[in-house]
Amino acid sequence: MMSKPKVLISDALSETAVQIFRDRGLDVTFEPKLGKDKDRLLEMIGGFDGLAIRSATKVTEKLLAAAPNLKVIGRAGIGVDNVDTKAATSRGVIVMNTPFGNSITTAEHAISMLMSLARQIPQANTSTHQGKWEKSKFMGVELFNKTLGIIGCGNIGGIVADRAIGLKMRVIAFDPFLSEDRAREIGVEKVELDELLARADFISLHTPMTDETRNILSAEALAKAKKGVRIVNCARGGLIDEAALAVALQSGHVAGAALDVYAEEPAQDNDLFGMDNVICTPHLGASTGEAQENVALQVAEQMSDYLLKGAITNAINFPSISAEEAPLLTPWVKLAEQLGSFAGQLTDVPLKGVHLEYCGDVSKLNIKPMTAAAIAGVLRPKLQDINMVSAGVIAKDRGVAVQELLCAEHGVYESYIKLTVKTPEYNRSVAGTVFSDGRPRIIQVRDINMDFAVTPHMMFVRNSDKPGFIGAFGQLLGNHGVNIATFNLGREQPGGDAITVVALDEPIGDDILQEVTSLEHVVRAKRLEF
Question: Where do the domains of the chain lie, and which CATH numbers do they carry?
Answer without folding.
Answer: 6-98+290-309 (3.40.50.720), 103-280 (3.40.50.720), 325-529 (3.30.1330.90)
